[in-house]
Every structure is written in structure tokens, then in C-alpha cells.
Amino acid sequence: MARGTLADTYVAAIQHDLADLPADATRIGVVRQPTSWFHAAVDENRPDLGPPADLLDSLRDIEEDMKMRGLCEEGAHNAAWDQVGFDEAYRDHLETDDDARAALAELEDRLASGESLVLVCFENTEKKRCHRTILRDELEESVS
């Protein structure tokens, strides 16, 4: 059986028909606290694959401080990402949190069984860094 495909996008791209997604792919939200309009754009949401609340809070606090100092939204977000060590902290979460590990294993199984998946979050990664690209990399490594 052929392995399913894996892609990622952001919710506004789906809402405005800007994302070129496989028709048969399951859209999986990976946000900890989705809005009602987010739910309308995805087939399911896996909050356990969202960043931990404390990591998001740290990122947002530093981002707000940097915006107050005059950085643009994207610049503040990306600088805060580096300052909190987001990449390493999120990878650690995926490796050590039991719920995240179980959710990741389920997505790996679904891909291995031939299901195509699209990971969905809020951030446009042409401008801002997003945990879903780390998640996509982890999934690609585990099922290759």
C-alpha cells in the first residue's frame, strides 16, 4: 500500500481558497485552542499537537514586548521564536509528552496506511515561523 501524502497550510489559505490541497486529504488542525471558525475549516483538530500553553505564553509575551519596541508583527514573532528556543522546546514536547506522542503515532499510522493529511494552523509561514512545519518534518522523518 502506498504511503499517504503530507502537506501543511494555514487556515486563512483554506478559507480564501488559496491553498492547493489534494482533494482526498484529511485536514488536521494542530492548534491547542481553536476558534469556532477554525473548526469549520478543518476535518478534525488535534490539540495535543499544538505547542504547550506555557511555551505559547512565553512567545506571546516576548513578541508583545518587541512590538512595543517598534518591531513589526512578523519580525517580533520570529525574534521571539528564537529567544524562547521555540524549535527545541516544541520538539522536546513532541518527544516527552505522552498525549503528543500518542497523537503523533496515530498520524504516522494513518500516513503509513495510505491516508493523505494536511496539517493546519493559524500562521502564514511565508511571514512567520510555525510549529506545524516542525511537526511536518517530524512526521516525514518517522514515516520515510
Task: Describe the structure concisely for a colleague.
This protein has helices spanning 11-15, 36-41, 53-68, 73-84, 86-96, 98-112, 131-143; strands spanning 6-10, 26-29, 44-45, 117-121. By secondary structure, the protein is α/β, with parallel strands linked by helices. It has one domain (6-143).
What is the element layout, followed by pairings?
Layout: E1 6-10, H1 11-15, E2 26-29, H2 36-41, E3 44-45, H3 53-68, H4 73-84, H5 86-96, H6 98-112, E4 117-121, H7 131-143
Organism: Natrinema salifodinae
InterPro entries: DUF488-N3a
Domain DUF488: 22-141
Molecular structure report:
The protein has 144 residues and is α/β, with parallel strands linked by helices. It is 54% helix and 11% strand. It has helices at residues 11-15, 36-41, 53-68, 73-84, 86-96, 98-112, 131-143, and strands spanning 6-10, 26-29, 44-45, 117-121. Helix 2 links the parallel strand 2 and strand 3 (44-45). Helix 3 (53-68) packs across helix 4 (73-84), helix 5 packs across helix 6 and helix 5 (86-96) packs across helix 7 (131-143). The mean pLDDT is 93.
